[in-house]
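Appendix B, record 7
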Amino acid sequence: MKNRERVLATLHFERPDDRLPMIEWASWWDRTLDAWHSQGLSAEIPWDGLAPALGLDRHVQFWLPHRTADCPQPAFNGGPIMEDEQDYENLLPCLYPEDGIDSQLQAMKNLKDGHEAGDFPIWFSLDGGFWFPRTLFGIENHLYSFYDYPELYHRMLDDLAAYQLRQLDRIYEIVTPDFMTFAEDMSYNNGPMISKDCFNEFLAPYYRKVIPAIRERGTKVIIDSDGDVTKMIPWLRKAGIEGVLPLERQAGVDVAALREAYPDFLFIGAFDKMTMRQSTEAMRGEFERLLPVMKTGGFIPSVDHQTPPDCPLDRYYRYVELLEEYATRAVKE
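Structure tokens (predicted):
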């Protein structure tokens, strides 16, 4: 089977003929690539050639811009660029750029034939209703904003949804992406950073505006949230979300328990990246943990965030070999 065919089969709980998809959904850290270049990986490999060069399947992601390039930047990572309604008004000229996606649309046109031929899946990411306001309010102020500026928060999500719906119409005139993610990061190691009531009041109405326009066109809808998402999954399902990634093991996420509880939910990730710095035996043990879930369908095993820089290149090649072995066993046994 071709790369896109494997992804589509897996996302529809069908069994690929040969093996499960082999992808690393998150881009590699620059520090990881720097280390690998010093260990023999050619620095001349173009970005879109890295996956095949490392033995993985090619996939193409687009992340829609929600701000102009000249929009104000925070003074520090996670800092604010706005506080209140007037600040938001002042920022509007650099938010929701109608031409921001133009170059990506051209790239989609260039990739259309290869996508339709099955050579690679295409997916896209949107700033979600938790993520996008945080980039404006800043991390700390954002968590207060649900209580300090509720009317403004609703307005921001109305504006965000309207903008994304316009951009989606333009995307689907060219290609039908196979899946998408809402970038959110709503959880950390101890679970959700907001309550169910807060989710239902602010985020659920936003999702219910945007998600139907995606699902009705045949694209699978997935939430990208770090940390322990276990408690949130019922909230997500009710809002129309069909899956979640990356299922971080260090946050205590148990993909087997989630599969038992939600047999029709999609999962991507779940492979404990910490085993990659240890040994081949540790990585094989991790694949043994995942194999029963891999056999159930609807699950693309992948590093549960990004491959750490202290994973040597030769061990990463061994990881890819093991991934292929278990991706094959998942459909053959």
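Remarks on this record: Residues 150-172 form the longest helix (23 residues). Residues 157 and 206 are 6 Å apart (CA to CA).
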